[in-house]
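Please decode residue identities from the backbone states below.
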């Protein structure tokens, strides 16, 4: 005798984690922008990364100090990717 059973049903794939940008090396009191949208204080000190959840696709990362853009990078992020962006300019290092 046959009975209905969940054994034959396909399992749903586990949910994917969102894409993440991890921005490091930013000067203290700089402001982080992703795609022109302010994401808050970039860092109180240079050793604290800013972690931002983003959608898959192209993004523009900017760091601004006052009215100046001190760093800009275009990146493409895949699904579930954790991309580290190391800011190399405008960090306040001599």
């Amino acid at each position: 005798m046959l009975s209905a059973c969940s054994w034959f049903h396909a399992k749903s794939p586990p949910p994917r984690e969102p894409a993440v940008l991890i921005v490091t090396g930013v000067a203290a009191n700089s402001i982080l922008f992703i795609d022109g949208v302010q994401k808050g204080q970039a860092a109180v000190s240079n050793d604290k990364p800013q972690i931002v959840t983003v959608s898959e696709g192209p993004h523009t990362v900017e760091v601004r100090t006052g009215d100046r853009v001190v760093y800009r990078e275009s990146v493409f992020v895949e699904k579930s990717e954790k991309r580290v962006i190391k800011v190399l300019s405008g960090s306040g290092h001599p």
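Observation: Strands lie at 19-24, 31-34, 37-41, 50-54, 57-65, 68-77, 82-86.
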